[in-house]
Amino acid sequence: MLAAAFDGTDLKLEERPRPEINRKEALVKVKAASICHTDLRIVDEGHKKLSGEGTTVLGHEFTGKIVEVGDGVERLSEGQDIVVAPNVGCGKCEQCLSGNHHRCPDYRAIGISIDGGFEEYFKIPSEAILRGNVVAIPEGIEPKEAALTEPLSTCFNAQTACGLEVGDFVLIIGAGPMGIMNLMMAKYGGASKVIVSEVIEERQERAEEFGADFVLDPTEFPLQEQVEEITRGRGADVSIVAAPVGQAQLQAIKSTAIEGRVNFFATLPQGEAVEEFPSNYLHYNQVYVTGTSGASRTHFVKTLDIIASGRLPLSEVVTDEYPLEEMDEALEKARKNESLKVIVRP
User: Fold this and answer.
1) Which string of DSSP letters, residue by residue, matches 175-207?
2) Taking every annotated instance into account, which residue ranges of this chain make up the domain Enoyl reductase (ER) (predicted)?
């Protein structure tokens, strides 16, 4: 079978034997896999959870159909369409026992420390089945939509952490694929107005297409002043930073209302720090700041239900599709500003 595997310096196509399963594992025919910014970052910089031995198949945003099930597996059956939450916890620590396997200090990551979905057949590890990481897909969801369950669930996690409420003014900084999905989720969650801040023209246009009520360029006028004008001097109730830029984090805090909530959604590049952090602004305005990463199984399941509702134009987030044989072209396309999510079909 064909697989796209990372050898420590590059992502290359290679022929591998179809995986064999034991009695506690299952085999999936991959239907669609989405390229994440994390995949691009691994190709460029590596990852701390890579073993450094041999090659690893990347891809943690994917869906497929179960084609083989070990006789010791319960709840799963051949013919099921499934998605897999990629972070597999130890099952024993406080975070895992509270249902937050994505925060397990010793988690193993599908597509990083375990072979992922950029391959024709994916072997589900026994621990992923045991921990409940495998979730059946409701009827009516297209494969390219199902493949976006994981990234969309991280938006669900972020907005839950922010306590987004009906009627909130929401500011989203960054209109890349994750900014657009946060925009969609904010509108789904009842935001009265969604403001998007973006410096790149192609992405400003994308934000307008996906229903942003206001699209601002922070290089034209100070973002805080623009947001205060829109919110009648109050500031945003919720601000989500979906751009990996320290300055954007500072802009978000200063554009947020008294008792507002800020989420640092995007990861800053390694070595980048926020200078002159506005501690007194947080103190006097009682602004709550949180960071989120990944999503729990509960977030994952609820996100699937949201997708199944048909109320999000999720398929429109997929701007490009490629066969696995054209993985290099797919990666290159995923780096371009005009692209949102790029799907690979093994």
Assistant:
1) -SHHHHHHHHHHHHTT-SEEEEE-S-HHHHHHH
2) 8-344
